[in-house]
Write a structure and sequence with these properties.
The complex is a heterodimer. Chain A is an alpha+beta fold. Chain A has two helices and eleven strands. The longest helix of chain B is centred in the middle third of the chain and has 27 residues. Classes of the chains: A alpha+beta, B mainly alpha. At the A-B interface, α2 and β9 of A face α1 of B.
């Protein structure tokens, strides 16, 4: 009969791999914690429920567009539908903080704002929200990242940041 | 007669697979570089939440 030590033997390579795997979990956990707590990077949040068949009744989405809530602070209410965003263009001054509220009228869409951390799934009946500060002037395209039909490739818009 | 068909009794000393270890090390290095680059890019793009 094999003694206890022989039956518990773990190869040195296996042991190394177990340690590396545990270290990787610690590093990933630390990276997510640091990004979330120290750098304010968040995942999109479903902030509100709306009736996709009656967005006019929701109040905020009755007239989609940009609303200034304070100097250089804006809220952008955007409706996604096959195959366009409403509004398609937003213009703001450089240094502005814009909080995006996006919902869908029909099917699932995506909302990715190029060169920023804003990337959300847009689900009918749900309002997704993320914010971004625009420190550099230029044009920031936003695109649908969820295949939503034959016109999906043409579903885009842009944020124009003027000096 | 070749002994390749004899059953392995588990007591043989096998060499460590050094080639596989090197491939794994290269793979991990590439993953660390790519993952780290994307992570730093994400941090450089800044805050996505303002209360």
């Amino acid at each position: 009969m094999a003694n206890k030590h022989e039956s518990m033997h773990i190869d040195s390579y296996e042991k190394t791999w177990i340690i590396v795997s545990i270290l990787m979990l610690i590093v990933f956990f630390g990276a997510v914690t640091v990004a979330g707590l120290s750098f304010g990077v968040r995942v999109p949040d479903p902030v509100q429920r709306v009736d996709p068949n009656d967005l006019a009744a929701s109040g905020t989405f009755a007239e989609p567009g940009l609303k200034e809530v304070a100097p250089k602070r804006y809220e952008a209410y955007i409706v996604a539908q096959t195959w366009s965003f409403n509004p398609r263009e937003i213009e703001i001054p450089v240094g502005s903080v814009v909080k995006f509220y996006v919902t869908s009228k029909d099917v699932q869409h995506g909302f990715k704002l190029q060169n920023t951390n804003v990337n959300m799934q847009i689900v009918p009946g749900q309002v997704s929200s993320l914010a971004v500060k625009f420190d550099k002037p230029g044009e920031y395209d936003f695109i649908c990242t969820e295949y939503c039909g034959i016109g999906h490739a043409a579903m885009y818009g842009k944020v124009i940041v003027v000096p | 007669m070749s002994n390749q068909n004899l059953p392995d009794n588990g007591n043989d000393q096998h060499e460590h697979p050094k080639g596989t270890a090197v491939i794994m090390a290269i793979f991990m290095l590439i993953i660390i570089i790519l993952w780290g680059t994307v992570y730093l890019l994400m941090l450089s793009r800044g805050v996505s939440f303002y209360g």
